[in-house]
Amino acid sequence: MNQRLFSAVAPSGIIHLGNYLGAIKQWVELQNDYDCVFSIADYHAMTIFQPPQEFREKILEMAAIYLAAGIDPKKSIIFIQSNISAHAELTWILNTLVKVSELERMTQFKDKAKRFSQNINMGLFDYPVLMAADILLYKTKVVPVGEDQKQHLELCRTLAQRFNKVYGQTFIIPKTIIRKEGARIMGLDDPAKKMSKSAVNPYNYITLTDSSDLIKEKIKKAVTDSGKEIIFNLKEKPALSNLLTIYSLLSNKPIKEIVKNYQGKGYSQFKTDLAEVIINFLKPFQERFENFNKDQNYLKKVLNEGAQKAREIAEKTLEEVKEKIGLI
User: Fold this and answer.
1) Are the C-beta atoms of residues 277 and 250 closer than 8 Å to each other?
2) Helix axes 296-325, 150-167, angle to 10 degrees
3) Of 168-172, 252-256, 314-318, which range is least confident?
4) Where do the domains of the chain lie, and which CATH numbers do they carry?
5) Which residues are catalytic?
6) Which of 121-130, 144-153, 284-293 has the lowest mean pLDDT?
7) How far apart are CA 279 and CA 288, in angstroms?
8) With a threshold of 0.70, does the pTM exceed it?
């Protein structure tokens, strides 16, 4: 058996290039080397109200995105988080070990609490504990995360160590895999903030289903830095460096090679070519996505089979946990 790997994406908002490059692209590569478990994290999505019918559609769309991106259900387990009740049960148990002060220190909670001051629900506050339960249920050894999730993963490790210390060795302490390039794709409208599903400005991101014309328009309007030279420098040219990273990851060309190719050329030519790179990359993905998304019976079959496999692992772990803590 390979080491087990767990990761998930919430089916809320739009799925954009940042989600793909920071997570899903890496999953496709990792599934050949690890025993992979990939969840559609619908409980996590509920920290913001989701209209029920739209929510059901987004959950299935996420499954279609996983498959279209290249996640192979013969190699990896794909399932819906809420189909496995052990996630909610273990969250409650871990809630008795986590400290309120630890959750109050979570940067994402503090940021979102400022932005959504009228909707600070308990789910938003407790989000990291559910994430810890997601990971620990599957005796996960490796978790690929973006820079913005490092703090949550550290809390997961803390809770696993705390449980093991109090009740005896139970959980594996997971390690992180952080991709150097693409771990944090920034917004097209502001290179100081990451590309975000919850961004108000639609020109912050490129969705995986954007049309060719819309992609050209968004890249044309993308923020650039002063000067005309095409160089990679995160401090002096953060906006351009972000665009170069996207170009490199989608074309599989080293940034140095791209920079060399654009010596003596300006931002306009670079942006025109970048838009074409994105369009050419997304076109076959979009065709696969449409085919999968139309066949909802197949999507449900994949998800049901994945849930059966996931449930066997999760319930075994939960049974062990309950025995350790003295439940009958």
Assistant:
1) yes
2) 40
3) 252-256
4) 4-177+296-325 (3.40.50.620), 202-289 (1.10.240.10)
5) 112, 194, 197
6) 144-153
7) 14
8) yes
